[in-house]
What we know:
The complex is a heterodimer.
Chain A: H1 2-10, E1 13-14, H2 16-20, E2 28-31, H3 41-48, E3 55-58, H4 64-70, E4 75-80, H5 92-99, E5 104-107, H6 110-122, E6 126-128, H7 136-143, E7 147-151, E8 158-163, E9 169-177, E10 183-184, H8 192-198, E11 201-209, H9 214-217, E12 231-234, H10 252-263, H11 268-272
Parallel strand pairs in A: 1-12, 2-3, 2-9, 3-4, 4-5, 9-11, 11-12
Antiparallel strand pairs in A: 6-8, 7-8, 9-10
Chain B: H1 4-13, E1 20-23, H2 28-39, E2 45-48, E3 57-58, E4 70-71, H3 79-87, E5 93-97, E6 100-102, E7 107-108, E8 111-113, E9 118-121, H4 128-134, E10 137-141, E11 150-151, E12 168-172, E13 176-181, E14 186-192, H5 198-203, E15 210-217, H6 223-232
Parallel strand pairs in B: 1-2, 1-5, 5-10, 6-11, 10-12, 14-15
Antiparallel strand pairs in B: 3-4, 6-7, 8-9, 12-13, 13-14
Amino acid sequence: MDNISALMRRGKLLGISEALDLINDGDEIAIGGMSFHRNPMAMALAIAKSNKRDLALIDREPGLAFDLLTISGRVKRIRAAMVTFEHFGIAPGFRRMVENGEVEFIEDVCEGVMSGLRAGAYGLPFMPSGITLESDLVKLNVKRGLWSIIKDPFGGEELVVVKAIRPDVAIIHAHRADEKGNVELLGPKYEDLLKVQASRKVIVTVEELVPEDYFRENSERLTIPGFLVTAVVHAPRGAWPTSMYGRYGADYGIIKRYFDSVKAGLGINDVLKVFENAWDG
Amino acid sequence: MPGMDDVIKCMAQQLRDGDIVYTGLASAPAVLAVMLARYWGREITFLNVAEIYEPVDVSITPSSGDPNVFIGGRGIVTSLDVFDLARRGLLDVMFFSAAQVDRRGNMNLSVIGNYEKPRVRLPGGAAAAYLYRRARRVIMWLKEHSSRTLVERVDFITAPGPTVNGPKLSICTPKALFEFDNSIGELVLVGLLPGSTIDDVINNMGFRPRIREPVTILELVTEDEVRLLNKWDPNNVRSR
């Protein structure tokens, strides 16, 4: 009820802790961005410090925010096509939690995540895909009930179809928004627009709030219309230490410190200290 | 001793005029191979996971998904669009590396050991169980030429090797170049880097490949090419 009254009072503009209230225990969350780029770090850090339970995460090629949440103790299941810290190595929290059996990992394929999000966004139950039938991943994900093999009704060839992905919440970091939830997102999009359409609630954190007439005066800049957005949170430098296209680069020094801390076996409270100076700059 | 720069040159030599190529995450060597082939004058349409279309220059960082790596692009082309292109059969080249690859060209980026209780949980295959079959040609690089990476049978088939219908698969290692013979379904040793011998190549892998005689001797990088690689990648991310 508090959330709804807050929305009524101030449009869709919420504080970060109010936005946190939109996330329920057990929710499946689609994380925006990719690798070390445009991750919704402000929200990820807030979730990591919260008392949420049994969350599930989904993304195609996630990086820092996803890995941090994986070791936060808030998450029980993750789904992705690749969880990498690229030239630093295998994502350290992911590796530790999955090898120890502390988090369940559903190994997907880029094509699987894209197809599932497309089905979710298109309002269809499943999507045909180009996933290779002979991959060992096919039997695993068929058994999990996420993929199935059907015959092309027009051509007769077998193909893998992917069940629609409908996350409970999508969390995306973007450049600008007004308080009605209209969003400007510049540069690479990854699958963020599909995540917005496929998810039941959408939280967008932004570098900059703009007045309501901004999009009337710059109508070509609208990327996501407000009716798709549940909440807007003002979070300047909210992707740090991941990059924000056109605004700031990735802070590889901090990312390396995170990598080394997790690899050394430090717990979440010690790892969180890496981010303590997040918004000083 | 040949090194990563020579592997990158081997990869670049697999590229052709007119190719539409895509590079993924953790792929600094692939980005550099594209740049080297362009330097040689090959016309290549360069798409990448950072979604920066047709960059004119690069400056390598620890992430090949970093939009700041790719300089002077003409706009954004999303990975969704590139994958659609590949599904229509129009993506010429995709680059991959792998933890293991076997005689049949099967590749593993999932686990070492048992899937449920892995000795090493690898990052996952990303686009492999799709583009490894859907690109027209696949160029793979291995940083290590050893019996750990070139195995008789992969621990897990993240993506199966090519079929009789394709794609064309080439594998560059610090010792050799392999090509997949689609008609017999096996990797064949076709090239050697200067300094390695056929015995050296075979004694350092987990299976005995067929050999296509005469084996080509590959070219090492020139001083000029090393200077360029260092300009594009001053912190030597490619060798990490």
